[in-house]
Amino acid sequence: MEAVEKMKARAAALAALGLDQTAGSEDIRQAWRNIAFNVHSDRTRGDSSEFTRAKEAYDLLRLEGLVSKGAQTGKPRRPKLRKRVISLDITDIDACRTLLNKALPRGASGADETCTADSIADSDHIPEAVGFHGRNLTYFVSSPVRQGQNRVALPTSVLAGARRTETEVLSFQAKETGGGEVVVPDTIRDRKFPGAKNVRIRFDASKQIRDEFCLAS
């Protein structure tokens, strides 16, 4: 199971026990004991579905090392997470392209007439891949930023496991044309990128830059 999938599974297991991701080992044990006592089939007239669901969640957390043998408290032990880069699916890229063409006009006089449904302006950007390091995201865009106003469309649901791609257009000013990195402000990240701890966008990002991302400690 990949690191991101493991994190999703642990979050779902904690939620099944009525806990959030700050829960410690003793919190998990106590939640399991309370649920096991209250929803055991002996007390629910033979219905064991809720008990079984809680037991599976507790067993997963125990196997993942989040439940210690002693009566220790504190946050759960987290495994070391490796960095990885995944190319975005064509549906994600198409959704970003569509959103850019439906977004606010580029010029004061109206929509850019030179931009068709299948093309975007030089100052508009779409990522080709996203790098994961735990809940830290780095979007890789092959095009360089342009001096002045820029827009970038991003699939925002990459950590949420959503069936439907959610996209968002971000606008920013650049002092000059070229490569570089933009950090998404916390206020936007919290609202638009569920589950993410940090979101960055790398522009003029070649395959070599993606490879260096994976190799960096």
Task: Describe, in plain words, how this protein is organized in 3D.
The strands form two sheets. This protein has a five-stranded mixed sheet with strand order 1-3-4-8-7, with helices on one face. The protein is elongated. It starts with a helix and ends with a helix. Residues 107-117 have low confidence and may be disordered. The chain has six helices and eight strands; from the N terminus they run H-H-H-E-H-E-E-E-E-E-E-H-E-H. It has helices at 3-16, 25-39, 49-63, 90-102, 186-192, 207-215; strands spanning 84-87, 124-125, 129-133, 136-140, 148-155, 167-174, 180-183, 198-203. Strand 3 (129-133) and strand 4 (136-140) form a beta hairpin. Helix 1 crosses helix 3 and helix 2 packs antiparallel against helix 3 (49-63). With 217 residues, the chain is of the alpha/beta class.
Keywords for this entry:
elongated, 19% strand, alpha/beta, single chain, three-stranded mixed β-sheet, 34% helix, five-stranded mixed β-sheet, 217 residues, 8 strands
